[in-house]
């Protein structure tokens, strides 16, 4: 069992100056109990905490680390930019064109793209653009999906708000809340009802095409196809929020994986390679409404930041050159099969959902296809499971409702260790 003395000391101090001691609620151990662990160093698939304990990492900075932490090519590229280019200009730089061109090449829906600094900025901007373009106010999202902390999205949201049990946030005005309608994931009828009840008023439908903030829930292909058709019929902008699944489930994201092309796409995480980056893009006809070309305002002092773009560009280049996706699939499938074999031995039958290297073991026997089925999972059992894995040196997300990310740098030995630990943790979850 790791000794966490220094982490506990730091957390006590942090609480005095930082709300809840953390700069993002998902980092707190609210639903699993205990106190957050302060990390000191990341290396590949491992991280070492301030007390000297080392963990095998399946959070990967919540998604960006598809190549692990501190990939040598990434650190070299960042160092080059730092020494030879600079940290920021507030003017255009050539790197911006390079990453925009590459993104438009690999992501099917992109004809033009705007870089921002986070996933939240990307989704907020995409929705404003859809509203400006259509002249309509309302949006439809899906219960349990998380699109960052923009006001419009904090209605029945997933991720940290779901973990904390408060999926609607105080501080969001009634007016904003009224413009956000929630449908049921994987249920096209629930969307049609809302569209019919709000005829001609819906600007956009925004969806995580692989939901990763209610655990992991794959979209059914026919559901996404039906959404596409509905949006075409009704003149609604279809937005795929690929902040998490983009470049993760396939190089071209879920839209490549499912073969369904949205009008706009939001991105983040992996395209920043661990630095703060987001982006939104899509059809030229829509994107040309963004300022200064069009009237929909969107801006950012540090947008297109050289260091962040360097990390993102280098990550994309490695993904293109090395095509890690078959290997990621093999690794994640190995874990899934290993966990299944452990459950068989223990007479357990919990649901596992997985799309490529995004996975979730739900402590429920109910198939998880939407928010309602996801919340049948037993968070208390997950908490015990989480702590047992942690005690065995494996760092999972401190919440039942988050994804487990396998990276390209998890070795077969790492995976075997994880499967062995999973057996013990499943036992611990039932004690
Ligand atoms: N959309 C999705 C699908 C996400 O998973 C996240 C973050 N987990 C966001 C948007 C928000 O991104 P950020 O935290 O960078 O603002």
Automatic annotation (TrEMBL):
User: For this UniProt entry, what is the primary localization, expressed as one broad class?
Assistant: cytoplasm
- CDD domains noted in UniProt: OAT_like (cd00610)
N6-(pyridoxal phosphate)lysine carried by residues: 269
Which GO-annotated molecular functions does the record name?
Answer: glutamate-1-semialdehyde 2,1-aminomutase activity; pyridoxal phosphate binding; transaminase activity
What Gene3D superfamilies has UniProt attached to this entry?
Aspartate Aminotransferase, domain 1, Type I PLP-dependent aspartate aminotransferase-like (Major domain)
UniProt keyword terms in alphabetical order: Cytoplasm, Isomerase, Porphyrin biosynthesis, Pyridoxal phosphate
Instruction: Enumerate the InterPro entries for this protein.
Output: 4pyrrol_synth_GluAld_NH2Trfase, Aminotrans_3, Aminotrans_3_PPA_site, PyrdxlP-dep_Trfase, PyrdxlP-dep_Trfase_major, PyrdxlP-dep_Trfase_small
According to UniProt, the name of this protein is Glutamate-1-semialdehyde 2,1-aminomutase
Source taxonomy:
Bacteria, Pseudomonadati, Chlorobiota, Chlorobiia, Chlorobiales
What gene is this protein translated from? hemL
């Amino acid at each position: 069992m790791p000794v966490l003395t220094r982490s506990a000391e730091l957390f006590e101090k942090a609480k005095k100056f930082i709300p809840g001691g953390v700069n993002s609620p998902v980092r707190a151990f609210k639903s699993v109990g205990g106190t957050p662990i302060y990390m000191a160093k990341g290396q590949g698939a491992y991280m070492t905490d301030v007390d000297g304990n080392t963990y095998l990492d399946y959070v990967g900075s919540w998604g960006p680390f598809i190549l692990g932490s501190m990939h040598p090519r990434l650190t070299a590229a960042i160092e080059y930019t730092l020494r030879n280019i600079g940290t920021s200009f507030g003017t255009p730089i050539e790197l911006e064109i390079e990453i925009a061109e590459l993104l438009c090449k690999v992501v099917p829906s992109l004809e033009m793209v705007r870089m921002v600094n986070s996933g939240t900025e990307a989704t907020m901007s995409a929705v404003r653009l859809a509203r400006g373009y259509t002249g309509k106010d309302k949006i439809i999202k899906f219960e349990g999906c998380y699109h960052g902390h923009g006001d419009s999205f904090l209605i029945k949201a997933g991720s940290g708000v779901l973990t904390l049990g408060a999926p609607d946030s105080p501080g969001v005005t009634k007016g904003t809340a009224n413009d956000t309608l929630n449908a049921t994931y994987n249920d096209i009828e629930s969307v049609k009802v809302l569209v019919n009840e709000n005829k001609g008023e819906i600007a956009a439908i925004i969806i995580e095409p692989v939901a990763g903030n209610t655990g992991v829930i794959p979209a059914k292909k026919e559901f996404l196809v039906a959404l596409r058709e509905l949006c075409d019929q009704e003149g609604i902008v279809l937005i795929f929020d690929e902040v998490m699944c983009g470049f993760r489930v396939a190089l071209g994201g879920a839209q490549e994986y499912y073969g369904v092309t949205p009008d706009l796409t939001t991105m983040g995480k992996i395209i920043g390679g661990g630095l703060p980056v987001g982006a939104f893009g899509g059809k030229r006809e829509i994107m040309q409404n963004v300022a200064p070309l069009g009237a929909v305002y969107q801006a950012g002092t540090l947008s297109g930041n050289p260091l962040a773009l360097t990390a993102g560009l280098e990550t994309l280049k490695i993904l293109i050159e090395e095509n890690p996706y078959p290997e990621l699939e093999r690794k994640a499938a190995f874990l899934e099969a290993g966990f299944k074999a452990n459950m068989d031995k223990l007479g357990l039958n919990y649901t596992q959902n997985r799309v490529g290297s995004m996975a979730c073991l739900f402590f429920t026997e109910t198939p998880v296809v939407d928010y309602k089925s996801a919340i049948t999972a037993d968070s208390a059992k997950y908490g015990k499971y989480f702590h047992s894995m942690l005690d065995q040196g494996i760092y999972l997300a401190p919440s039942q409702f988050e994804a487990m990310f396998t990276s390209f740098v998890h070795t077969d030995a790492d995976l075997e260790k994880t499967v062995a630990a999973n057996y013990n943790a499943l036992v611990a979850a039932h004690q």
